[in-house]
Structure formats: C-alpha cells, structure tokens
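Q: What would this chain look like folded?
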Amino acid sequence: MKKTQDMAFKFVTRFTLHRFTSIPKQVLSISSHKIQSLSTTPDSLFPVPQNQSDYRKSISLANLLQRYGFPPSQLPSFLSKYHFLLNSDLNELERSLAVILSFKIPQKSFVSLIHNCPGILDSQFLRKWKESVPKFEEFGLSPSVITSVLEHCRRFQIDPDRFFERVVVLEGLGFSDSTVSRVLTEFPKVITMKEIEINRRTEFLVGIGISKDVIEWVFNWFPGILGFSVEDKLKPLLEEFQNLGFSRDEIREEILREPRILGMELGELSRCFQLLRSLKCREPIKEKIFNGGAFRAGFEVKLRVDCLCKHGLIRREAFKVLWKEPRLIIYEIEEIEKKIEFLLNRMRFDIGCLVEVPEYLGVNLEKQIIPRYSVIEFLSSKGGLGCDIGLKDLIKLSRLRFYNLYVKPYPECEKLFGRFAGDVVIQRQRHPDGLWKLFKPPSYPQSKEDVKNIRCFVESLV
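A: My prediction, written as structure tokens:
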C-alpha cells in the first residue's frame, strides 16, 4: 500500500513539473508581463524598441499611400522592397503624389507607376515636369502616354525639353497625333533616339518599296520597329527572306499585311519552314495551313510558338507540340490561350504535360475537355476513383469508352457529360429511301439441275 502511494506521488510530481516546463515561452513572457504591469508605470509598460521610429514611419507612410488609393494588400511587400522611402520626408512625398495626380493619370496606372518606379516620387524631378502640364495638353497626349513617358524619363534622367524635342521630330516626319501617342506608349525609348536614327528606319522601309504615306501606318501598328538596328537586324532579316525564295514584292506585301514580321529573329522563319516541311497530317489540314501562302504559314507557326513559350515551354518543346498536333497552326491564338488557362488554373496540370499530350490543344474545349473534366472532378470529390486520372487518360480515350468507364456506372454523371445523357437525342444519319436497291446483289434464275446439285451437296454434309 505504501509503495503504491509513493508511486502515485512520484507520478503527480512528474506530471506537474512536465506541465510547468512544457508551457510555451511566449505564454510565460505574457504572464510575467501581466504580473509586472501591476507594479509599473504606464511609460514602462511599452518599452520603446530600437526600430520603433522605423515602425512609426512605416505606419505613417502606409497611411499616406493608402490615402492616395494604394491597395492595402500591396503595402507590406512594397514597403519591404523599397525600404529607402522610410528616410524620405512625408510632406515632400505627399506633394509628389499630388503632382503625379495633376497629370490626370487613372488610379490603376497611378498605383502601377509608383509600384514599378518608386523613384518617380523624387520631388526635384517632378518639379521640372509639373511646369510641362500645359504642353502635354497642347500636344494632346493621353494619360497612358504620360504614364509611360514619366516612367521612362525618370529611369534615363531625361528632362522635359529633350522629350518635347523628340515629339517635334516625330511630328516633323508627318506622324499624326494618334501615331505619336501610340509610339510613345509602346516604345517610349524613342525619346533617347536621335533624329538621324529614326530617319534610317524610314529610309529602310522606303528602300523595300513602301510609300511614305504607308510608313506612318507601319509605325502605328508596330512601333517596336524603331528599336531595331538597320544594319544588324533589318537588312539581314530581309536577306534571309530572299534566300528562302521570296521576292521583294512578296516581302513588301507580307510586311504591309503584318508589320510584326520585321520583329522576327534571324533564322526563326527558316526554322518554321523546316517544321512545315516535316509535317505529317491529313491533306485537308495541310491545305488550310498553306491557304494564305508559305510565308504566312511560317509566321503563323512563329506566333503559336511564342504563345506556348509565354506560358513556360522552351522553344524546342513548343516546336515539338506543333509537330505532333499540326491543327494548332489553323486554330486561333485566343482559343489556344483559353485551353492553356483551363489546363493550368482549373485542372491544375503543369504546362509540361502538353509535350506528352499535345492532343489536348487539338480537341474542343466546350464539347470535350470541360465535360470530361467535370465528370472526373465530381467522381474524385465523391471518392469514386481508385487512382488519379492523368491528362493522357482524360483526352485520348474515345467518347464511347470514356462514357462506358466513367459515366455509365454513375447515373448522376449523365448530365455532366451530356454526350450520351438520357435527355439528349442523338440523331443518326439515315440513307436516302431506295438507296438499298443500288447495293442489292443481282438475282440469277436457278435451273432444275442447279437445285439438284445443291440438294446433293447438302445431303452429303449430313
């Protein structure tokens, strides 16, 4: 009995000590802080840490930015990324924000400008540009142009006088206000270019047979051409097109149809033609691919490759996907974008799956991909699948086999699938009346001798 009591006492003691020592340090510090607060003054309740001033500056700066429309969700990352703003004078920052708003920049562009280029808040820089507001209105520049110009000029330390000199040069070339705005928005680096450099691009276009009246349209449609070197990019690209067998007239027509052709890399069109020559597809698909000519087909391949690379594939993988699924060349890029977005965001697959299952991009999104995934998603949520279904099993199965495997055993999936649902009437094609007569074998009259021979043959079998 005494031994049992000793064991119980030891157990209670160990349990109490364990409970005491297992209390988190935060709880102990909080409780000790409460006990200490009963005998301390209010000033000593919250001792000032070393970074208390930075914390207060952060709060004040966040309140200032939030007051000017900065989203609260972006403030922590913004302040941690640009910590130097804490050393700025809040009054000067507020005046800078007011100057930027005086340019009538939209709220979304205003936040994006500060987030991408916080140096725009420099008071000395904005003091020079504040006096240029009437000139912006005089040239008819839109707020989007002003946003792009301010960011670019701040990065390259360009003053207003130099900027308006370049605007005068563009207007001197015969560009309309809309073309000038378009160029400044899409290619603000034109501000740093000299007049002679701009004239070289114009002379190149005139040299291949494009009239001066159309040059403005080319720059308006593709302002990026101003950033290409004539000697290192444009002339070698023209020689490549000619080496592929295209005349200058054909090249000029294609440039006028799609000026972005001049943005292709050297050797890129040759690689696209190599893919087109090696395609193995049905003849109707190949006819649709080359319907607009070989040059246009090669450029369409380039656009699809860029689309796939934008979402994470390397160029070699993108060419492989197009080679395995040539129908992508005749599909609209918007349609391809929708399928990729559904694959990444809804189905949660990796972009690399397209290399193994390029057929995904060749089937219809609304009629095949969405119904099949809806069925699989429903069965997975109910625990009806014993294993994960990959993209290959989801796409490569025929409609009837997919129905028999995943829809027919579960009546609740009928409406999700839709193709073989009970309320869907499937109209089968019927041959015209009387067509069976054309396929009826001819009948021959049988003689008595033929009947006798057939009867003997049958009796021999018995």
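DSSP finds 26 helices and no strands in the chain.
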